[in-house]
Amino acid sequence: MGLLDRLVVFLKIKKRQASVLVVGLDNSGKSTILNHFKPDEQKSIEIVPTIGFSVETFKIKNLNLTAFDMSGQGRYRNLWEHYYQDAQGIIFVIDSTDALRMVVVKDELELLLQHKDIKNRSVPILFFANKMDLRDALSSVKVSHALGLDSLCTKSWHICSSNAVTGEGVREGLEWLSEQIQLNLSNN
Amino acid sequence: MYARKDRKDDDDSAQGGNKWSGERSSVLQEARVFNKSPLDPKKCSQVLTKLLYLLNQGEKLSAAEATDTFFAMTRLFQSSDVMLRRLVYLGIKELASTANDVIIVTSSLTKDMTGKEQLYRAPAIRALCKIADAGTLQAVERYMKQAIVDKNGSVASGALVSCLHLLNQGCADIVRRWPNEVQEALNSDDAMVQYHALGLLYQIRMNDKLAVSKLISKYTKYNVKSPYALCLLIKLTCKMIEDEGYGTDCPMFNFVESCLRHKNEMVVYEAAHCIVNMKSTGPSEAGRAVAVLQLFLSSPKAMLRFAAVRTLNRVACNHPKIVMSCNIDLEQLISGTNRSIATLAITTLLKTASNESSVERLMKQIESFMTEISDEFKVVVVESIQSLCEKFPNKQGTMMGFLAKMLREDGGFEYKKAIVDTIIDIIHSNEDKMEIGLGHLCEFIEDCEHTSLAVKILSLLATKGPKTKNPSKYVRFIYNRLILENAQVRAASVSALAQIGSECPNLTNNVIVLLERSLMDEDDEVRDRAAYYLKILQKGNTDLFTQLTLSIHGLESALCEYLKSDMSVPFDASQITYEPPVKQAKPAAPLAVPEKKISPGKNVYQEEVLEVPEFAQLGNVFRTMPPIELTEPETEYVVKVVKHIFGEHVVLQFNCTNTVNDQLLENVSVEPVAMNGGWKAVHTIPIKKLGYQETASCFVCFQQPDLLDGAYNSGFTNTLKFTVKDCDPTTGEPDDNDGYPDEYVLEVFEVSLSDFIQKVANVDFVNSWEELGPENELEDTFVLSAYSSLQQAIEKIQDFLGMHACERSDQVPEGKQTHVLILAGTFVNGGRILVRARLAHDPTMTQGVTMNMTVRSNDESLPELILTSLA
């Protein structure tokens, strides 16, 4: 990076660029969360299951984020790993009403953490305990217990409960993530 | 704007392209740039272009490589660069078949095809259909239906074409659910959309004849605007007319004819092209179409001239008289600057040429620009020369010289092959020209880079050489090959030498000396052959040059058996099943006049029947008819009959197919019962077992009744007899019960006189007629009341007698009221038959065609037989 570029970044004239990966089981609300960051005229009213992935771009706090919204269906989950390599942040969306599949979530999370493209890098992980408005939703604390996040000390992580339909809690979470990514970028 | 950029991009890749060829690994390395963040769209576009170039050059990626590249490429979806995105679509299409998990881009493509950016939509749909399977297609069905009826023409076209592809990708069921949308697209104003919609609609209904005919009759009435759609409609209509055998007076044909007056040239051409190519077209209809093409011949557009002359060239054989009317226009085209058009024009003229002097003039003209045209057209010229040789035997000398000249010039394999085939054809048909032809061929192999041609010529030299006055000349040519050529040619030379040596006793010793030199050849095959033939020649035993009359399979199994035994007794070849040599299946009787038999060729059926050991002693097959269907194509059991005519027997081969998946048929046989008492079945071979979807043949052999008695004509009623065993549809294993016998009545077929007559072409009719003389001549006059035109009558007579019309006498000039039809053929007993029929038809009378027929033969009973059969 040339001197001028540094200056530009320092003065925050030019926005930085980063890509994040959005993963989680099917029907956890990944596409719905991202739908909030689209400009109004592009918002889809009806969210259909994603097949494969789709790309969304938006900006949070001077950071241009490119989000890879991955499909959560069982047959596509093994395709997540193709995108680990260049992800500078991960958003892991959990359906907090689905206590039954919490073990599946845990498995997938462990697989992700053990992957060679994630293991040795500092990638901030943002957990959304989604669907908090529903009656039988687990609290974010309970979710983090269920996933064993307490013992996760190699990565910086944050969990917040959210309601993707209304957008409650979503922006706060993303702001945390963008701070973490900016921190990482300026460290490098 | 984007389109222009696009083209520029393509140009760049085409010019700079060569430097990337063979650099696939480096390009794959460069593809890592897709993973960089932030993306550099310009760089990525370049790399992707290189990658596409490599793939289009036929570079194959392994599944792992393709998958890696594919997933790297999917990251490019984050860029909003339009050019890059469109390149990504192309990349997806290219890699869709090799990479795994291509399904990953489904959502991204769906987003693009429904998005606002119009430039993305059509290519996204096309890419989507490449990666979609039945499952994902269902998920995006809604979007596809919307896209089909989209206002934007390119999007609708893209969707329709994608549907066409999907039909063949196993998603037919889903596509078939959208006929309403496709119908709506057919009403679009966009010419392309209309065309694609019609194409798709036809593909969807293709297997349903009724639906297709409804489709055609609906849209021929409805005013289709798009010229493309109209062309397609014309094609479909003509196919329908052909398939259903409609005449030229049906409304469908009227529609095609009305298109001759359309204002768009493309439509007019298509209509004319289809009309002249239809079988049912009579001279008057073809005349109108040719008139249109004639107008095109003088068009300022080269494309139209080319199309017209090409079509005329094709139909020149069927309607020479009509095409002749264009001769003046064609003559003008010869001197034009466009060589492709000139070549076609001149070959068309050659085909229609009526006298020998004009042929010579045309040949001179061809010669003048032979060097300027491409191989493809040279082949066209050679083909037309071949047909000329058949027509004007006297001109064969000139042609031969011309061909030899062409042979000396440079040219590709196809071209040389066409020339060599033509020369060989002349050699076979004309004894006088044999030596000259062989000389030209010898000269050709002196410097021939095509091994297969050299081998072919060598074997011809071996068979024809000994019949010439001076075979030793050919020994020298062949021996030269033995010194100079590759192993394959050397091996062929050895065989050829040996054959000449064995057939010309005075050369045997010389050949032995020459062969001895090949004993030291470096190639095994050549050495083996040389040693083998030397032994035989030294023994003076030439029997082994005749055809091997053993069944190869039988010999193989017998030898295997022998090897397993203790080999105490010498191998006995006499116990192997005898099989007549298949290669001699054509009647062997040599005829004095050079004649060429038009047999349907050695077809598969003929080989099948010759493999049956029981029929081996029947001799050679005289004729094998094309199969006749005895059932409707979609019944439980499908049976076709093939008639094989032998010297004294008739073998009926029934090809049976079982289409019931839960039945196993055993002991399947067909019982034909002749309506004429003279026919006696002597042998029946049933099928032992016939499973689901299997086809096998059972045979019935009849002793021929006394043909000369008039008993040859007979209908056969047929019953299929078999034992049914129920079986498991999945495994095909029969249940263990015994099954029950059942019968199935088949349709009737006939054996008629024409089956026993072989067509003979290339006869010098007048000479043969004189030669046969009036000893066995009969004459009779008939009134053929059923026919209303000469052409119709001629076709029926030809059909009935199964003989060949000589000198194109089956073509009647329009408006003529009398005509002479001359026919030639060979009867099953080897007797030659020549027929001269004078036909007269008065259009004002209603009573039909009057015919005076004279038959000559070298067999005294044949003329009577022919005439009584007609009566």
Automatic annotation (TrEMBL), chain A:
Gene3D superfamilies from the UniProt entry: P-loop containing nucleotide triphosphate hydrolases
Topological type in the membrane: Peripheral membrane protein
UniProt-annotated binding residues for Mg(2+): S31, T50
Coiled coil stretches, renumbered: none
Pfam families recorded: Arf
InterPro entries assigned to the protein according to its UniProt record, in alphabetical order: Arl6, P-loop_NTPase, Small_GTP-bd, Small_GTPase_ARF, Small_GTPase_ARF/SAR
GO BP, sorted A to Z: cell projection organization; establishment of localization in cell; vesicle-mediated transport
Family assignment from sequence similarity: Belongs to the small GTPase superfamily. Arf family.
PANTHER family, per the entry: ADP RIBOSYLATION FACTOR-RELATED (PTHR11711)
Protein name: ADP-ribosylation factor-like protein 6
UniProtKB/TrEMBL annotation, chain B:
A single GO cellular-component term on record: endoplasmic reticulum-Golgi intermediate compartment
GO molecular function, one term: structural molecule activity
Residues annotated as domain Clathrin/coatomer adaptor adaptin-like N-terminal: 24-540
Region (Disordered): 1-26
Alphabetical UniProt keywords: Cytoplasm, Cytoplasmic vesicle, ER-Golgi transport, Golgi apparatus, Membrane, Protein transport, Repeat, Transport
Coiled-coil region(s): none
GO biological process: endoplasmic reticulum to Golgi vesicle-mediated transport; intra-Golgi vesicle-mediated transport; intracellular protein transport; organelle transport along microtubule; protein secretion
Function (record text): The coatomer is a cytosolic protein complex that binds to dilysine motifs and reversibly associates with Golgi non-clathrin-coated vesicles, which further mediate biosynthetic protein transport from the ER, via the Golgi up to the trans Golgi network. Coatomer complex is required for budding from Golgi membranes, and is essential for the retrograde Golgi-to-ER transport of dilysine-tagged proteins.
Complex and partners: Oligomeric complex that consists of at least the alpha, beta, beta', gamma, delta, epsilon and zeta subunits.
Family under the similarity heading: Belongs to the COPG family.
Protein name (record): Coatomer subunit gamma
